From TrEMBL:
One Pfam family hit: Pro_dh
Name of protein: proline dehydrogenase
Entry's Gene Ontology molecular function annotations: nucleotide binding; proline dehydrogenase activity
Pathway: Amino-acid degradation; L-proline degradation into L-glutamate; L-glutamate from L-proline: step 1/2
Source organism of the structure: Streptomyces griseoloalbus
Known EC number: 1.5.5.2
Cofactor-binding details, from the entry: Binds 1 FAD per subunit.
Swiss-Prot/TrEMBL keywords: FAD, Flavoprotein, Nucleotide-binding, Oxidoreductase, Proline metabolism
Record-listed substrate binding positions: K98, R288, R289
Cofactor field: FAD
Amino acid sequence: MLGPVILAASRSDRMRRLISAAPVTRQVVDRFIPGETVDEVLPIIQELTGDGLELTMDVVGEDITTPEQATAARDAYLELIDRLKPLELGTRAEMSVKLSMFGQALPGGHELALANVRPVVEAAAGIGTTVTLDAEDHTTLDSMFAIHEELRKDVPGTGCVIQAYLFRTEEDARRLAASGSRVRLVKGAYKEPAEVAYQQKHEIDKAYVRILRTLMEGEGYPMIGSHDPRLISIAQELAHRAGRKLDEYEFQMLYGIRGDEHLRLAAEGHRMRVYTAYGTDWYGYFMRRLAEKPANLSFFLRSMISHD
């Protein structure tokens, strides 16, 4: 399987330098990451919301090694919120954050990440929108869930992400579904050991459906993070069986993948949110998109061949 190989490459400084230097890389990256600055992505935000879509914005960058970098990540999100305010989009443009960017892996990282992310969550609430805490590798999740619970005391709309390939997630979903929280369910994009995660696609898909049923039948707000047509169809059926209205759940897909499907779901009246990343530190994000789906890797390789 190529996925683990690509994920390993995402952590290699040598591969980072090699791929970043390839002339074709920038062309392909632009498919998934529409800009490096707020000024570059604001027109994209306006275009997508004008088409009836919603967004969750991610300022990319995970290799935080100093408290100063974590503070800079906080400030980047605060700048985004400041620029979103005059657009008055409310929850049509929310934010996704990785706590690793806010210093979670540094000494005293739990407290540091909470201190850095809290003003972002509060500022987002101040312009009528929300923040979702992205899930990262399994060793970070207890901290993430604790921070999520703490933030929801003051900002109940704060969301979190759970990953279907982890054995623990079915229990996490039962707890979260009963709490009224906003929960995004994804398959999972980190290389995890067999001791904690399913390794085969069919096992992950079956777990995804079981977890999604729990969320749909619960009291929370499910966010279906998938591009898989079969899972999307199953989600619609589960929502129908649970008696959910179209505004009581949403679909989420990545910018640059299945754009026609984004528009189709929105046209049918579904809430369709596009996960839109931007920033200069795009390498890790880009490599995980390649690892998640063979078609993404094929697209990259074809682009390299046609460029040559």
